[in-house]
Structures are given as C-alpha cells and as structure tokens.
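Budget justification aside, the reviewers requested a transparent look at the raw inputs and outputs of the sequence design task funded under Objective 1. We therefore reproduce one unedited record. The lines immediately below are the structure tokens for a 357-residue chain.
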C-alpha cells in the first residue's frame, strides 16, 4: 500500500499555461514533458498539492554569474543571479487571472478526477476518495493592490495560500536572491502593506508561505501571524547555505509555531555546494528531511517538490519517481507513521489550524 504525498509546491500550472507550440501539453493527459500531469501524479502517488501561479517578467532568464573578489578574480564556489525588475501590477493581474482560469478549466474538464480544494474537509474527502486535490497558491502577490481589495476576490475564488514575495521586491516585502553562498538576512522586513496583508491572511484563513521571503520579513510574519509558520518549498541552510533555505533559528521558530517545512527537491538547494548543474541523488532530499526532523521533529516535515520549476535530482526524472523519495526517507529512518505524517498528516494539521475547520 503506497503512502500518498500532498506536495507543498509545484509550478506545473504556470509551466503548462506558458508552454506553447511544440512544448504544449495538457495536465489531464500523460506527457513525456515536464514533471507532473494527472496520470503521472496518480502513478507516483501524488495525491495533490499547492499549485503556484508565478507571474514572471517577460523574457527574463535566470543567469548564473561568477562573483569576483577584491582582486577581480572569480571566487570559487560563489555566484550571483541578477534579479529581474519589479513587475507592474497590471501585467501581473491579467497574467494571474489567465493562469487561474486554467486551473478551474482543468477542474471542469477532469470529470471529477481533480478538485480545487478550499477547506480541510474537502481535502480530507479528496484524499479518502482518491480525487486529486489542488490548492491555489500565488507565488509573489504582484497581482494584489495594497488596499487588498483583489485579495477578497481571489479568496472567494479559491485562493488559500500565498507567498508575499517571489525573489524580486514588491509593494509588500523583499525576497531572497539566489546568490550562493548567502544568508537569508538580505534587507528590510515587510512594508506596511505587507503587514496588513499578513493580518488579512490570518483573518481570512490563507497560508502565508515564507519560502522566498527574506529573514526580516520572516520574523515580521512570525510576530504578526497567529497561524503556524509554513515554508512550502525550502531546505536546511545548515546543509546548503542558500538564502532560499532556512537557518536553524528559523527552523526553531517553525517548530515553536506548530508549522511546517516542505523539503524542496531542487539540486541547487540540496547540494552543499549549491551547484544545480552538478549531479545529485534524491537521497539528498532525505538528508535534508532527516536534518529538519532531528532538529525540530517529524511533525514539522513535509515535501515541497518544486516540480516543473526547478532542476530535479538525476534519479528523480518526474513525479512517477516519488515512491523512490519515500524509500530514501525510509532508509533515513522514517517509519510508516512518519511517512504518513510527512506525506499528508502534517499538512492536514497545519491547514486545519490556518484555514479553520
Ligand atoms: Zn518558489
């Protein structure tokens, strides 16, 4: 009997929306492209997950550049990734509506095989009945106005999770860069609008995802929110010093709040040298999960694959290899009960506490 996995983060919705021409594919049909579609998710035991809408800057490509020392020579093992400029709200809003409509169209076309879930009751029913459960997530809230009027509309449409920022700054806060190595302590905390956003999310019952937020913003959320702290797709900074990963102090705060860390599958956040272009095995995922479980407890560990938005380990070509991730966790000492918590149980607890029942 396989253990179902509810995934903390994927970019499948955005990726399929953007894939045109030769690259086009459907979520409902099996494809050899990308990491996730419904048939492959079923085969891999993925029961559902957070589906991110990420409004990117047109034409921006992630470029990895060397960091130079005082003598002008490149520093070994260090690089920087220039971030794109701020995204205008009008661009982000029309794009976000377009991607969201795809998710609802998938749901309508799936003939009951998938559902956009808005409550823990709905999520539990989906898990029990084998219906694929999608949670709508905004990765960066460039589409929102600072009066938070659009937030009400998005919430009523089904939005149940958001990251205030992707890595570029916006009207609500500041994200971490992808530079390596680096601390997540990279600038000021949330803006006034960002603080109002966190309070509004608490009131409405929307997850505030900390994964791309810088450290000052993280501590602002920790102070302002009554909800469990959640980083849907990050790893342990002690094992891979990327600003996208969580320091021990941040992990301890997640524990104190009853929160959750979804371990990211991206090579660049798993490997100790941060090199996304070098080889990596999915056993690295288990190494991070073990570290986080040992430090703050297995009840605060989940998975946040970053499928369709990141560079996967070489032995994890797509979601059908998810059982191998569970096997690696088993080899790292996670028993059946632990795997059920990591797979779905911890999410049900944290979403229940955040969304209300
Ligand atoms: Zn992300």
């Amino acid at each position: 009997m396989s253990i179902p996995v509810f995934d903390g983060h994927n970019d499948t919705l955005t990726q399929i929306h953007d894939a045109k021409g030769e690259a086009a594919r459907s979520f409902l049909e099996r494809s050899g492209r990308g990491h996730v579609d419904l048939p492959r998710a079923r085969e891999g035991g993925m029961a559902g997950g957070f589906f991110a809408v990420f409004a990117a800057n047109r034409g921006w490509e992630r470029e990895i550049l060397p960091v130079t020392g005082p003598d002008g020579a490149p520093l070994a093992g260090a690089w920087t990734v220039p971030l794109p400029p701020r995204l205008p709200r009008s661009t982000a809003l029309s794009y976000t509506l377009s991607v969201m409509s795809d998710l609802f169209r998938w749901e309508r076309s799936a003939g009951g095989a998938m559902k956009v879930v808005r409550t823990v009751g709905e999520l539990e029913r989906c898990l029990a009945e084998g219906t694929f459960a999608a949670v709508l997530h905004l990765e960066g809230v460039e589409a929102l106005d600072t009066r938070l009027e659009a937030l009400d509309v998005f919430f009523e449409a089904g939005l149940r999770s958001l990251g205030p920022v992707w890595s570029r700054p916006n009207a609500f806060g500041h994200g971490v860069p992808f530079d390596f190595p680096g601390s997540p302590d990279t600038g000021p905390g949330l803006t006034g609008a960002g603080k109002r956003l966190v309070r509004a999310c608490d009131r409405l019952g929307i997850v505030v995802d900390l994964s791309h937020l810088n450290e000052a913003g993280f501590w602002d959320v920790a102070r302002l929110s009554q909800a469990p702290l959640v980083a849907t797709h990050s790893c342990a900074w002690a094992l891979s010093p990327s600003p996208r990963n969580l320091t021990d102090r941040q992990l301890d705060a997640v524990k104190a709040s009853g929160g959750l860390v979804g371990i990211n599958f991206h090579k660049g956040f798993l490997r100790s040298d941060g090199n996304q272009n070098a080889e990596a095995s999915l056993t690295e995922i288990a190494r991070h999960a073990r570290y986080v479980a040992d430090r703050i407890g297995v009840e605060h560990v989940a998975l946040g694959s970053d499928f369709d938005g990141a560079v996967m380990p070489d032995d994890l070509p797509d979601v059908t290899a998810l059982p191998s991730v569970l096997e690696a966790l088993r080899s790292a000492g996670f028993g059946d009960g632990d795997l059920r918590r990591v797979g779905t149980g911890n999410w049900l607890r944290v979403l229940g506490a955040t969304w209300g029942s």
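The mean pLDDT is 97. The two ends are 29 Å apart (CA to CA). Computational costs for records of this kind are itemized in the attached budget.
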